[in-house]
Design brief:
By secondary structure, this protein is mainly alpha-helical. It is built from six helices and three strands.
Length: 119
Amino acid sequence: MDELTKVFESVADYFGLLSEPTRLRILHCLCNGELSVNEVVEGTGLTQANTSRHLNLLYRANVVARRREGSQVFYRIIDPNFSDLCRTVCVTIASRSDMSLPRRESLLRLEQDLHEKQG
């Protein structure tokens, strides 16, 4: 049972990365491909410090890779499971009948964007 407990803890850590809306915004930007930190800041509207902090967490969790080119750092998604999970959850939530139409349409657009970017 100790081995199973370790697996559950690892899975909880993995899903914990998705529990922060800021990281979801960053991952959505990176679904387009590799971006510099400045491009992620522009795409999310977050501060540079906040963006860098979350990108570092994603990097340490082996969700994104980074490379340096001169003074700029570029990030890209290396764990395709994150995009798949986001797409699945967006479709599931959008299919709920108790959701307002604009919110449902927004989630379905997000799902379509994620699908096209991986496609």
